[in-house]
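Quick look at the format.
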Amino acid sequence: MRFPGNTRAEDRIAVRSVAQTALVCFLLASSNIAHAQLSTPVITTLPGGRVQVKNAGPSKWTGTNGWKFVLERTIQPADGSPGMLERPAQIAVAKDGQMLVYDGGRGELLQFAADGQFLRKIGSKGQGPGEYEFLLGFDTRDGVIVGYEPNLRRLITWKSDGSYVRQFATPSSNCGSGPTLLEAGGTVVIPACINKGESFRGAMVRFSLTGQVKDTMLLPLTNRTAPGWKAGSGLYTIPFSPGVEYAYDSQSRYIHGWSGTYSLFVANHLTDTARVIQLPGSAQPVPSRFLDSVYERSQRGVLKGIAKRSDYPAFFPLFTALRTDELDNIWIIRPGPDSRPALLDVVDRDGRFLGSVAFPPGITRAPVWRNGRMYRASEDADGLPVVQVFRIDRGKY
């Protein structure tokens, strides 16, 4: 959890003493009490064809006794080297294991081999052909790399060897949110903002790799917004508030949910919600000492005198992010007692709750699931940036 005016070291030190003990208690409770018995999901087709999947518990394993993460490698190029990491912000992974890491500190897209060796920079900073000032999203597939540059409103394509191919204009993404997805068959999907007459609407637009618009999917409307503090010209979301989380799978299905309730909605491309997934779970309380430390930090910067301790929710959201893997399993990231990812609930492509998985200890940023692995940006014991690769050990499950 970060606040204006804080350093990363201050944030890390302030919560560590509370978090370590609380995390042990949290995982023990999650493993031994929650989801203690296996359950068969109830699947019903509702009027209109919508499918409802009710999960009363996990269907494959109890507690966190099923799938496990096994650390395979840590990527940390030497300080001052061409592949040096400053602030890895996003990751994309190809089928052969090659990784793309967008470093927010350097503002550059870095390519690594499957074994973690640095290969090259992709493109460069600037406004010319194949250049970018900022990448909102990127992806790689079948020897192609795409990068979405929202400031210049264009999508750039390169070959996997870094050579520039082309770029083309895209619509604004000011009111759209979502990843940049490179699909099988040579199409790419990006977030966009569509003019609907009296208002603008968030959408996902599918392009060919030569720039032709194939189709557009308007994102589902929601009247729920996370509360925030207004300070100057900025609006700061109140920490631990629920919000809309989303993900896309390999079939371009849009998976979303409000993290104040434990239900997910799956929309097929260009259709309304096709599947509703209901899950068991309860929100975890925000520890009082942790909340005190977060509130105290808020009073050191622009939120001083604006943020009130009573503004903070008493409970964490039920989940903080959604991700999918190459098998279209949905990985639901659930927060621990220090707000960091601590537990994952795994749901298969049909909405069946398989079981829970304990998150590896440490900082987790920009996690991605591909090739039977989880890739994440993290920090070493000294707080220096690394990228870690974990193999998913499925055991007998």
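Next, a different chain entirely:
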Amino acid sequence: MVIAGSGVGYLAEDAEVVSLTSSKKCNVPLNLDYAKTGCYDKEYDIEYSLEGAVGGLLNCSSLPVVCGGSCINTEYFSSTCQTLSNSSILGNLTLSVEMSTPRVDAASIMINTGSDTGRLWITGGTMTKSNSWTYLATTELISFVPFGPGGNGPHLHVEQGPELVEAVKSHCMVNVDDQTALLIGGHRFDDKDETDQVWTFDLRSPPDDTKWQQGPSLLAPRFSHACSLIKDKETGNRLVIVVGGEGPIAQSVEMTNIDGNPTGNFTLVAGGVGDTTENIFGVYRLTHPFGIATEDRSSFVFGGGDDQMVYRDLWIVSCRNGDCSIERRENILDFGRSDSVALLIPQSSVACDF
């Protein structure tokens, strides 16, 4: 697992690679071009941490890319997508492309994961314009092109994606399968504030705005949370897990059983109204979490913090016969991190001695 980005108060010079089977770890140079992200202060020669970015794996899941985000301690929002160097595809070459607009607190999924036509779909988020916040309903698709027309070398390509139903930030997205994606919760810039809405999108046809359908709602509004698809270890049923964030019951974990629940309604896995985050996660709060499902989708591994504290711990949610448990592994990371990018990469892709 590569965690690209950093939590409150830390510089992001390295990415941390953690083995999900043994918890062994190593650090690798992040090698982001901070001048392109806007997170480099030339006067003081300081590279600020990039937070609120999104990322994915292009080119048969072998090429990590990080897009957007904002710089800690600055008001700069980035529109840059760039690959992480030291990959088996590019060596020390870093590719970049500019999105149509700066974005922070967007959400993303991979489309056609694991193929050479895989694209990173980046949705929503927010930007600043004329000293005011602008929430985004636009989306963008990022792809890797090995060779361009006229003999051009490898590069990143950006194109406009389908519009969202409404502008939203701090939401999350998950692939249910190759045909369906979910957009879950988020924050809207009006009196409605956070939302409990879940939208489904049909991935089978060329992207267009008509493929959104409203799905079952969360139990309560939630934003700045994380979500993932895992499988029940006994039944094999697909489970969408939602953890952390902000909202009336954000200290809880909720789930919908894709295969075992015809209504698709969400249910509580742990926590609820009146419970505190200490009851569930053992910490004061857990907002802006990041996470990734294990390769076999048996567990969801995540970390996080809040505006005052970030944690070095990782939490693991897994389920068996409908009963789910939460395991906390303390001090796994070198630095406390939240609002970061987590990617699942093959061990062969990094120079770590696990």
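Residues 2-348 form a domain with the Neuraminidase fold (CATH 2.120.10.80).

See the schema section for token definitions.
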